[in-house]
Design brief:
The protein has 108 residues and is α+β, with helices and mostly antiparallel strands. It has 4 helices and 2 strands; from the N terminus they run H-H-H-H-E-E. Strands 1-2 form a two-stranded antiparallel sheet. The chain starts with a helix and ends with a strand.
């Protein structure tokens, strides 16, 4: 989901780091409040509601994780994964063209 405590605490490899402002907890809080409830989770099984209900500790961890992503110019590899499902649109359910694919991504 996000960088581990070891990765967040590790400032040994600063050669590729970029100087950026840290993501603030209030920014994470604003984005979480704007996220829609009731959406399907990605492969991590976590929903927006879970992050919203987790509280201030989670917001702080997310802010640190996003800041690390910006500094390192990379994201955890799991954020690149998606579950692709087909949603039925209309017409004959036996015909593949009557479905559309959607990608279920991890929340963060």
């Amino acid at each position: 989901m996000y960088y581990s405590e070891e990765e967040l605490g590790s400032d040994d490899s600063k050669e590729n780091d970029v100087e950026v402002s840290d993501v603030m907890k209030v920014e994470v809080d604003k984005v979480l409040r704007e996220m829609k409830n009731g959406k399907s989770p990605g492969e991590d099984g976590l929903t927006a509601e879970m992050f919203k209900w987790e509280g201030e500790n989670m917001k702080e961890k997310l802010a640190k994780s996003f800041s690390m992503c910006l500094r390192k110019r990379e994201i955890p590899s799991s954020w690149n994964n998606a579950i692709i499902i087909l949603l039925y649109k209309k017409g004959d359910k036996e015909r593949v063209e009557n479905y559309r694919p959607i990608s279920l991504l991890s929340v963060p």
